[in-house]
Every structure is written in C-alpha cells, then in structure tokens.
Amino acid sequence: MAPTRSEPGRAGPDRARPGRAEWTRAAIARGWPALLTGSLLAAGTVGLVLLPTLASSAPLLLIALRPTVSVLILVGGNVAFLPALLIATVLRTLLDLGYFGLARYNVRSLLLRRVGTSRLVTVLSRHGAQRGLLWFCLINTNVAVDAALGTGSVSMRRFLRFLVPGSMTSSALYLSAGSALGPWTSDLVRWLDNHASLLIIGGIALACAHAAVVMVTRRVRAGRRPAPATSPPVSSPPVSVEDVH
Description:
Layout: H1 13-49, H2 51-57, H3 59-65, H4 69-75, H5 81-104, H6 108-115, H7 119-124, H8 127-136, H9 143-151, H10 156-180, H11 182-194, H12 196-224, H13 241-244
Helix pairs in contact: 1-3, 1-5, 2-3, 2-11, 4-10, 5-9, 5-10
Transmembrane segments: 40-64, 71-95, 132-150, 162-184, 196-216
Region (Disordered): 224-245
Keywords: Membrane, Transmembrane, Transmembrane helix
C-alpha cells in the first residue's frame, strides 16, 4: 500500500505536537512566576489586615502570610525560633524567586508596579554588577536586585545558591532582634490584640478610601486629556460648466 499523504494546508500530528509543546512550555514559563508572586502578595495583604489578631493568637501563621522584616521583629520574641526561621526562609525565598522569574521571562506587568521604574534594574543588570549582586543576596534582597539578576545571565540554580543562605541569615537576624526586643514588642502585641477589631475596620476603611481616591484621580485625569484633533473635511473644488463640456 502506498503511504498516505497528509492533505495540503493541514499539519500532521508530528508537526502539530512540537508547536503545542512549545506553547505549553511558554505558558508555564510565563505563568508560574506571576502565579507564585501574586499568591504571595495576596497572602501578604491578608496578613496585613489580620495582623492585630494573628500577632498574639497565631504568630507563626502571620509569618507564613507576611514574612516581612517588621513582622519578624514584632513576633520574634513570641515564637519558637527554629519553626519561625524555617517558615520565614522558605517563603522569603519563594517571593524573591517569583520576582526573579518575572524578570527572567519578561513578565513585566506586576514587577514594574513594585519596582516603580526600570532604570535601576537596567543599571544593576549589567554584566559587571551581577557578581556583586549575588554576594549582596547573602546579606539582604529586594525587588530591584531580584529583577536585575533575572534579566541578566545568572542561572536560577546559581541564584538559589546565594539566595537560600542569605534568606536564612537575614531571617535569623530579624528573629533574634525581635527576641531581644521582646519586653517592648510584647506590650505592642498586647495593645494590637486589645484593639484588633478597630484596627482591622480602620485598615479596611483606609484601603477603600485609597481605592476611591485612585479611581477619582484617574477619572479626573482622563477628563482633562484633550480630545484628539480631527482634521476638517476636505472640500472638493467647485466644478464649472466649462470643465463639464
């Protein structure tokens, strides 16, 4: 039997699979950083809203939701050191890894809102500065450093070699500082617990007011924009009787 030929205009199964595989890989590569970073930022927002309650009742959960410097210092004297260190290290590493992935796969929408401007990232992403940025990760990390390393030629494995010990070291320092400041932070945590309801309601009200101000500002700016200039219609020259004849 003669081999069957595929109809013209239709790609065979062997040709269709690579295209779908490439599309799937691209979607996963661009999707996981945005999903990871968005989930962690959303959890951080929840932690900020529930901070007055969780600071005294569930400090480890608060660290899991919002492992920021202020939270680690606030509850450092009220939690077991090793579990808090493990949770903070893992989640702080994941957040930095998410920003690294956003920059690596050019997912800029969420990243630029946090960085504010890409000029600093452009300067830091130069080849000569990448080695210094990697060593800086052993001390502290921020969004600009993560984005600069992500846009550069540093591999993710090499980034993690510096990021993981750096996140562990910085988290240990913040928790130790919180433990040393325990006599003062415990009073603050107790005050937050006593006024938790009012603080949560006030935080939600401030967030709603901020959203309303942003919406009104955008509408005012949109109303002040000049309307696009429309060119007047081109009038055709009058046709004389001599031209007709």
